[in-house]
Protein: Metallophosphoesterase family protein
Amino acid sequence: MRLAVLTDVHANREALEACLAHAKENGAEQYAFLGDLIGYGADPAWVLDTIISYVAKGAHVLMGNHDIGVLQEDRKEMNTTARYVVEWTRNNLSDFHRDFIRDLPMSFQLEGCLFVHANAWAPEKWEYVDGVMEAARSMNATTAPITFCGHVHTPSLYHMNQAGKVGEFTPVPDVSVPLSKLRRWLVQPGSVGQPRDGNPAACYAIFDSLQQELTFYRIPYDAEAASQKVLAAGLPPSLAQRLLHGG
Structure:
């Protein structure tokens, strides 16, 4: 099975459209969306409607911290900008959208792999995997040989050998990586809708479960259009600039 793994879409219609089109062209047979479907961007309803249409065809979807934020009154853990956008997003969603979000799980397993938004040790606490220590903690919290997670907006690949030593690998786009069964793996595809590594191109990955190969992709899209929508919606200008500069 060729599984497209997309995370941190953040209500960016243009980026999601580009990634879904690319995934289809590259033989994706199934889709997994790892949370933070909304927040920051200007098209939350369109993004949710699109992902809901994929769920109807068998896609899997997780809850992210920005998703659950629209259901909560108290969001003290979020910064001022994120809280403002969450409130704006809440006011631009229907009851149908909110019900869909409310039913999303914190994790799921597919093809023997674990899928979470933030980490495997406490998915509901939204702690980041942003280094080898956190990656080791996450991999040690599950028996799954491969864990896919989002939350971090930069593509990364961690691996653990049989002695428990963890290393980090910076993936090269369009180059397949064989995931040896002699190691354990933690995959961060990067963000579809708001990359933060200095490259504005959207991120996602395809996992071929038959070949045990993973390919990361960077997909150029109309970031200028997405940025202008953020400004037109009255959202913070810093979010518009972030789309243009990938940071």
Summary: Residues 2-245 form a domain with the Purple Acid Phosphatase; chain A, domain 2 fold (CATH 3.60.21.10).
